[in-house]
Specification:
Blueprint lengths: L1 E2 L2 E2 L5 E2 L3 E2 H4 L3 E6 L2 E6 L1 H11 L2 H19 L7
Antiparallel strand pairs: 1-2, 3-4, 5-6
Helix pairs in contact: 2-3
Length: 80
């Protein structure tokens, strides 16, 4: 679906992720426009895009990996 703020994918099942129930453990709750939504985590989104294998997904993976790296910078590092 295309909206005035961008595209939204509404799928019943996702390649590499399965059905909604399979993805629930890999989601976070996000509030947008006063509505609480579930979104897949960044690591899971990267994995799903790799599994889909579409050129547009591969183009987005590099950007998503940068975001993931930036997210990790704010967290304390685990002891080995």
């Amino acid at each position: 679906m295309t909206t005035s703020v961008g595209d939204i994918d509404l799928l019943g099942e996702i390649t590499g992720g399965g059905a909604y129930e399979n993805l629930l453990p890999h989601t976070i709750e996000v509030e947008a426009f006063g509505i609480t939504c579930r979104c897949v985590t960044l690591p899971k989104l990267i994995a799903l895009k790799r599994a889909a294998g579409r050129p547009r997904d591969f183009d987005a993976i590099a950007e998503l990996e940068v975001l993931l790296e930036e997210q990790g910078r704010g967290r304390p590092k685990a002891n080995n």
